[in-house]
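A reminder from the course coordinator: this example appears on the midterm review sheet, so study it carefully.

Given structure:
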């Protein structure tokens, strides 16, 4: 967790640098997740003509979902920070990036069996962190709108307690070596996809437009201000 905190502070420090203070800002929403009832808003900051920083949040409000005739928990949240590099220029096509995030969850672990996505007949409750990479395609259209298709993969480390679907704590979860005394606390690390989607966004801040509008307001105020006349001085 200490490593995650250090990386997050470095990313925030980069945003506070004068060269990024006047960056274009886009607010986005993942439409693919929205179809499943999962909320994934993001804010993207253009840093240079070939780079950007994005911070995002993923939240599943579902306390449980019905799979194979059984109700299984699927409640989680993810906070993710990401740096992107664009090969042909900002929002002009393909990009790659690296991200770091943290998560909290109460969910049944997914797995693939015979080409089908399944959920374990139990659930875990805990927290974790992740380090990953992503690739995607992004384009600006109609001047203010942005289109983003992406996929990411990460190394996830989690710490949790395991429970049966009826809520009973698993005091002796599967481990390579069992402790001397029953202990529900468990952990695991594995590679998993950490993001996938199709996002649509809109520009909410443009430094050049802001500057032009500020200048226009100053000119209007200056034109509306009444001229002051000094009394004429008559020489004797």
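Designed residues:
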């Amino acid at each position: 967790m200490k490593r995650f905190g250090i990386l997050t502070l470095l990313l925030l420090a980069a945003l506070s640098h004068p060269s990024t203070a006047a960056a274009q800002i886009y607010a986005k929403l993942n439409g693919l997740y929205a179809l499943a009832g999962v909320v994934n808003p993001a804010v993207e900051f253009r840093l240079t003509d070939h780079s950007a920083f994005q911070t995002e949040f993923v939240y599943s409000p579902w306390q449980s979902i019905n799979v194979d005739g059984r109700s299984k928990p699927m409640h989680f949240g993810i906070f993710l920070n990401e740096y992107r590099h664009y090969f042909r220029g900002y929002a002009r096509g393909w990009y790659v990036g690296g991200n770091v995030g943290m998560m909290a969850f109460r969910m049944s672990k997914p797995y693939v069996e015979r080409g089908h996505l399944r959920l374990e007949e139990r659930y875990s409750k805990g927290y974790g962190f992740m380090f990953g990479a992503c690739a995607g395609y992004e384009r600006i259209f109609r001047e203010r709108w942005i289109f983003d298709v992406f996929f990411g993969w990460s190394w996830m480390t989690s710490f949790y307690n395991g429970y049966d679907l009826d809520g009973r704590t698993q005091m002796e979860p599967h481990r390579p070596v069992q402790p001397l005394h029953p202990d529900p606390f468990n952990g695991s690390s594995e590679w998993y996809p950490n993001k996938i989607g199709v996002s649509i966004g809109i520009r909410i801040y443009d430094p050049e437009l802001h500057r032009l509008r500020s200048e226009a307001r100053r000119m209007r105020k200056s034109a509306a201000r009444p001229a002051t006349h000094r009394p004429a001085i008559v020489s004797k």
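Confidence is low (pLDDT under 50) at residues 1-21. Residues 48 and 176 are 48 Å apart (CA to CA).
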